[in-house]
Protein: ATP/GTP-binding protein
Organism: Streptomyces heilongjiangensis
Amino acid sequence: MILGRTERGTPPVEPVTLKILVAGGFGVGKTTLVGAVSEIKPLRTEEVLTEAGRPVDDTTGVEGKHTTTVAMDFGRITLREDLVLYLFGTPGQDRFWFLWDELASGALGAVVLADTRRLEDCFAAVDYFERRSIPFVIGVNCFDTAAHYPAETVRQALDLDPDVPVVLCDARRRESVKDVLVAVVRHAMAYTVEHRHSVTT
C-alpha cells in the first residue's frame, strides 16, 4: 500500500433472500423455533386462548399453552454474508388455514415441525406441501416429556418419500434450529435442480 492511499474495499455483498415456512400442528413449537433463531425481534400475532376456543383448540399434551398464533410469526436469520432467510411461522389450527396459500407464495421450502406425542397433527401440513410441490423437511421437536424415536422410525410413521429429510431438533436452541434450516435450504436446492432436470428431459 502506498503511503497516504487506502486500499479500495470490496463492494458490499447483496444477499440472496429466501422465504421459509415453519408449519405444523397446534402447540408444536413453531413460535418458539422462530424466536430461538431470529436475529431480529420476531413479529408475533398471538392471542390468549379463551374458553370459547376450547372445543376447537385441542390442548392435549400441551396443557400449559395459553396463547395461539392467529396470523403468522416472522423472523430473520443470516446463514452467510450472502444468504438471508425470512421465516414465516404459520398458524396451526384448521380455521386459520385460509392464510396458508398467501404465506406459501414464493416460499423456497418449509419446515414441518412434529411432536412425537401427537404425530398425526402434522399430517395435514405434509399433505399441503406435497400437493403443492413445495420441498419440506420434518423437524422432530424433541420435547423433554416426549418419547424419543430415531429419524427413520418417524419417517415410516409419516409415510414419507425417501428423499424427505427428517431432522431431530430442539426448537429452543439456536444451533439446533440452524441445522434444520440448513437442511431445508439444501433439500430445496436439490429438489429444484432435480425438478428442472426432469422438465428439460
